[in-house]
Each structure stands twice: as C-alpha cells, then as structure tokens.
Amino acid sequence: MNTPQMQSFPIRSYTKKELALCYFPQAKNPHTAVNHLMSWINRCEPLCDKLHEQGYQKSAKWFKPKEVRLIIEHLGEP
Hints:
2 strands
C-alpha cells in the first residue's frame, strides 16, 4: 500500500520511543507512549505476523524502515 498520506511521514529507522511519541505526543512519560504503541501493534494480528516475518524481535530497541512502513500501513500515520 503506497498512499499519498504515507509519503508525508518519513520512513526511516526509529527507536521505539521516537515512534511511540509520534503516535502519542501527549504522553507524559515516553514509557507510557511505548506501552500504548506496543499494545496497538500486539492487537493487530496481521501486523504482528508481518513484523515477525521481517525478523522483528520483541526486545529490539529500534524499528527498521521496513517495520515502520508496515506499522504505518496497518495503524495509519501518526
């Protein structure tokens, strides 16, 4: 999926904290933002499946560009 909206958000490597704060800028604590983002990701089974196919590891501190693209395709842009 390559929509014009997706092109406005830069696809690059992000720490989990960076990406989570893009989705939840109002979070008072970055850890809370990460927890919310990971909760969204974990509830989206197709996204989880595709992330694991890409080699995503739960303990990773960074999302690779391919993983960021998948997240945006399934959850929308922040």
